[in-house]
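We store amino acids, tokens; thus:
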Amino acid sequence: MKKTLEFRAHDGEIEDIALGPDNKVVTAGRDFQCCVWQQDQLVTGLRWHENLPGIPDKAYRYQACRDSGTFLGLGTVTGSVAIHISFSLQRLYYVKEAHGIVVTDVAFVPESRPGRELLGGHEAALLSVAVDSRCKLHLLPTRRSLPVWLLLLLCAGLIVATILLLQLAFPGFL
């Protein structure tokens, strides 16, 4: 094995590292940060006090991370578990103190046939393991979204309504 890249990712030790799609790397460090990297460039990151304001950042930190491609699963020293969207780090799921103590690892249920059976109608499933000797399954409900045709129809209606309002407000506009 040859080293191909070296850079400073965190101040202090790295607690966990996960490889994601498109050559992205996710790191969780003792500096209370979780970062997504493309080569040696920071793509985006989470800082504990920005993600969960009001909770002192010196008492908590990210401990474990996994990136499924679409989602990033995180476990913390306090036993909390979260799921974020990989590219924006928007939080979709959070359970404060899901475990009694440190989450040592998290893993997404694979999208194999047995994995899909566990998922049921949910978008993702994350397993968390902690020092409390428990393994828990966290199910992310399927997010609702508008169909593209409905969105286009709404946009067209908005444009027509705007033109009609302008015509009423300023006769002879068109």
The chain has a mean pLDDT of 85.
